[in-house]
Amino acid sequence: MDVGRETYIDTRTHCMDLGHDEKMVQSLDFSGTILDVSPAWLTLTGYVKDEVVGRHFMEFLDVESLLCVEKNFPQLKDFGYIDNVSLKIRCKDAAVITVTLNGTSKYSQKGTFERTFCEITPTQKAGC
Questions:
Q1: What is the C-alpha separation between 21 and 95, in angstroms, rounded?
Q2: Is the whole-model pTM more than 0.85?
Q3: Spatial separation of the C-alpha atoms in residues 82 and 58, rounded to whole Å
Q4: Which candidate, 43, 44, 42, 62, places its Cα nearest to that of 52?
Q5: Where does residue 118 fall: left (phi above 0), alpha (psi -120 to 50 degrees), or beta otherwise?
Q6: Bridge partner residues of 121 (DSSP)
Q7: Counting beta carbons within 10 angstroms of the beta carbon of residue 60, is it exposed (0 to 12), middle (13 to 18) or buried (19 or more)?
Q8: What's the burial of 4, exposed, middle or buried (CB within 10 Å: 0-12/13-18/19+)?
Q9: How many Å apart are CA 107 and CA 85, to the nearest integer?
Q10: Which helix (H) or strand (E) holds 72?
């Protein structure tokens, strides 16, 4: 694994706690499928865990955000981080919230991608 990348990833300060009740956190696999989300993620979007885990993250995005994710997700997987990505997430009640995503990737000892940890911060609570 690239030592510079590993050192930088270790200094990341955004929340990676999937059990957090106040911060929206999600973890994705290599393809973008949701592995887990925090209780705050569920509360803000109105979904229950069974409706989210195992589905692709792009299924929860507004159409405007799809190209942004297609551009930024490869960077998150390959370089280990992304910052300040603005997205719009569709809630269960069809409301849309604008958020900022900061993400970090986790790699195995051999440098193989394992999963992401992304903190999602609402920048506009429109209806959710």
A1: 21
A2: no
A3: 17
A4: 42
A5: beta
A6: 100
A7: buried
A8: exposed
A9: 21
A10: helix 63-79
Full pLDDT tens readout for the chain, 128 residues: 454 545 545 555 555 667 767 889 999 999 999 999 999 999 999 999 999 999 999 999 999 899 888 888 888 888 888 889 999 999 999 999 999 999 988 888 888 889 999 999 998 644 33
d(CA 43, CA 124): 15
Quote the tokens at residue 2.
Answer: 């690239």
Residue 43 is encoded by which pair of tokens? 């509360």
Size (the chain), residues: 128
State the residue for tokens 């690239």: 2
| Residues linked to residue 81 through DSSP beta bridges, in sequence order | 104
Residue 10's φ and ψ, nearest 5 degrees, are -65, -20
Q: How many helices and strands, by DSSP H and E, does the chain display?
A: 3, 5
